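Issue 218. Parser rejects a valid record. Input:
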Amino acid sequence: MRGFQAKTVAAIRSQRVVCVVKVSELRAKAFQIGFEKDGSLFVHFPYFQHRTGILSSSEIPATGERKADVNIEHGGKVTSHRVKYSHHPDGRAHFSQDGKIFTAIKRQSISLETQNGHMFTLYIQGLYALDVAKTAKDAEGISVNRSVINFQIEPTAEAIKFVGQWLDINKLRVSEPDVTVGPRHTLVDPDGVKTDAILVASPHANAKLVLAISCVAIPRLGPEN
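Output the parser choked on:
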C-alpha cells in the first residue's frame, strides 16, 4: 500500500446521520445512515415522498464495459412502503422495513469486518420529491445520537450520485506522515480521480471501520423529472 498510515481518523461518530443536499437555497434530506450496537449498518430512505417502487436483486455481466442493461422487473418485488438497506456484521444484506416488508430481496455478502471498499451507490433525480430540511432539528450539527451533514451541489446539476465506501482505518493511506484524517477527506481512486467525502462511523466502542460518503453531480438519468 502506498503512502503513510493516518495518525488519527476523526470521523463523525453518531448513531444516526442525516445526509442533506444543498442546492442554492434548497436543503433536501436525501437519506439516513444508521449504526446499531451489534455492528450492523443501515441505509434508510424515509424522506422520499413516493412509496411505491420495485425491489430487485440483479446481476451485472462482467464484460468490462462501463454500461450494461439490467431488467429489475425480472424477479422484482413491488413495495408500497419506504424501505431500508441493511448490512449485518456477518454479511447478510437485504432490503426490509420493520413489521411491514418481508425480507425477500437478500444476498449473502461479505462480512463488514473484512469489507474494504464500495458499500452502496444511490442515484437521485428530482430533489423536489425529498423532504426539505427547514427545521432547527435539521440544521447541520453533530451529536452522538443524531448528526446532520451537508453536501453542496452546483445549481446546474441534472442529477446526483452518492457513494458509500466502507474503509478500514488501518488501511487508509495519506501522502504525509502523522496526519489526522477527517471528518472531511479527499479520496483518490485507482485512476487518480479525486472525490471529496465525509467520514462517518459508529459511536459504539471498538468501531474501527468508517463509512466515507461522497456526492457528485452526474448527467440526467432519464426523461422523467
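Fixed in the parser; the record now loads. The longest strand covers residues 26-35.
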